[in-house]
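Usage

Read records sequentially. Each one opens with the input sequence:
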Amino acid sequence: MNHYLDFEKPLAEIEGKAEELRAMARAGEGVDLEDEAAALDKKATAILRDLYKDLTPWRKCQVARHPERPHCGDYIRALFREFTPLAGDRNFADDHAVIGGLARFNDLPVMVIGHEKGNDTKSRIARNFGMARPEGYRKAIRLMEMADKFRLPVITLVDTPGAYPGKGAEERGQSEAIARATEACLRIGVPLISAIIGEGGSGGAVAFASANRVAMLEHSVYSVISPEGCASILWKDAEKMREAAEALRLTAQDLIKLGVADRIIEEPQGGAHRAAGIAIENVGKALAEMLKELEGKSPKTLIADRRKKFLDMGSKGLAA
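and closes with the structure output:
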């Protein structure tokens, strides 16, 4: 890992010094600096533990957006077999911000759909930074309806700052496409489970996460608007994003209390970006458990379960 967040600067200094010592040892014959480097490693571990012990909502936003955090494609490659991508909305185009297709999850045929942000400059531009256009939501609707037809569970992986707000997207019916996708989530008679793996931003996330079960990674966030957008509207000052993050109650811990999320998936110490394999494995276990909870339920029961979940949402935390 070579990208440090603002609040991780003390950690960056210690880990940098440890790496310098090891580089010196590799370059100089007979120089043994491993003990000094190991002492710095121990100090770095303690700093990391303290930094992540009680993250503020704004810091959780930063972790959720970390560029080295595993993305949708990483989860699909690690957790699903025989993935067959399905492209296009059969109306306008294929939106590369949305990945979807048939796959096997623990030998169970499923439909998997998710937002993909990309992992370098070229792929981020191609994926539009995970911000879907109307054709992305219409593709998701098509795949959900296909899953419903063939009685396949649907798994969605949510990681988006929000739906793309550009002129072309608005002209092609962005709000209508999001509403239709949300409606499709609530209508299909097969198990629908969602995992918020990074950012769950606005209606662009709700359109994939109106599910029977919603899990959130420990340092992921899910909110009606970004903290910066909220601050710009309420205080006319995007720099008040820290206050906005507090007010939005967007952390997994808050959303469990409000009934928006159903479970929190533990992340490795220091966030999913520090040990992607462990984070992906934990998500896989949570997905399997959520599917097990819905096994054998009739279409009518699944739809009623989803409806009740959303009607009850927020009532548990109103007195908090």
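Summary fields computed downstream for this record:
- The beta strands are 80-85, 98-105, 108-115, 154-160, 192-201, 213-217, 221-223, 263-265.
- The first helix runs from residue 9 to 27.
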